[in-house]
Amino acid sequence: MQKQPALEIRDLRKTYDNGVEALKGVSMRVEEGDFYALLGPNGAGKSTLIGIVSSLVNKSEGEVRVFGVDLHADRSQAMRLVGLVPQEINFNMFEQPLDILVNYAGFYGIPRPEALVRAEEELKKAQLWDKARKMSRTLSGGMKRRLMIARAMMTRPKLLILDEPTAGVDIEIRRGMWKTLKEVNAAGTTVILTTHYLEEAESLCRNLAIIDHGRIIEEGPMKTLLAKLDVEGFVLDVEGRLPATLPAIEGATLLAEDDHTIDLEMPREMELNRVFAALDADGIKVRSMRTKSNRLEELFVRLTGNPELPEKDVPNE
């Protein structure tokens, strides 16, 4: 028997009362067990789409199925399969983490004894068990974010949706959350992530959709989409000081960032050995190399034509 997709959306449309058409016939499919990214600039329709799937926004037209359950026909059953982690921290700061999780479970009819067992399990997974009886307002930013995920997991959702979960947090917290989310997904939960951070999507997700102006403009495996880029960029660290003039290599562009660093752009089909040989012939020895650019960022710009990119991996002020 063929497995049902974790999420299937067909011709989803949403027009708000003020006439804004936020979704214009969106269709997408997320397979069970996937880690899936939904990307797009501000106003593209991401939040509306997630709002409809999590039953916080009413659709205008279309069909949404969660593991085969029609959201419109059987909302309660569909919502039992979904966990949502919103962007905003929305728990009571004067409650203890254990109580936050147990009370949340109670909203879904989970008996208190069972909720206590689950809460201990989820807090331990989130590395928060030692904070179970502390006031939540005393938790660090990263701990609060992990608590949000632990709370969503209390209902044992098969599909976990995270709406900009790392927005506004510093790099250390963000990378700690990446580890948590990878563990959640590895344990069998399907994860959908909306994010402004393209590095985040490239690091975590296997498949993605890019939405712009209410339409899905690209969807598919991360590797397949990135392969569409025909240019790669590298930063080369060299031994000693660079000469005043760098060698000319047909098809490649070399620029000196400083006395010890070369910025290299080259076609994907070009062999790096050719570049290294040309540099070596000029007495330039490459000590180390790293990828220069975020390839997903390049893809996003090409597809949307939007020069105002989602934020890079830097902490907000």
Automatic annotation (TrEMBL):
Q: Please name the CDD domains in this protein's record.
A: ABC_DR_subfamily_A
Keyword Plastid recorded: no
Record Pfam families: ABC_tran
Top-level lineage group = Bacteria
Which SUPFAM superfamilies does the UniProt entry name for this protein? Answer: P-loop containing nucleoside triphosphate hydrolases
Q: Which GO terms describe its molecular function?
A: ATP binding
List each copy of the ABC transporter domain by range: 7-238
Is Nucleotide-binding tagged as a keyword? yes
Keywords per UniProt: ATP-binding, Nucleotide-binding, Transport
This chain belongs to the protein called ABC transporter ATP-binding protein
Q: Species name for this entry?
A: Arenimonas soli
Q: Which gene encodes it?
A: yadG
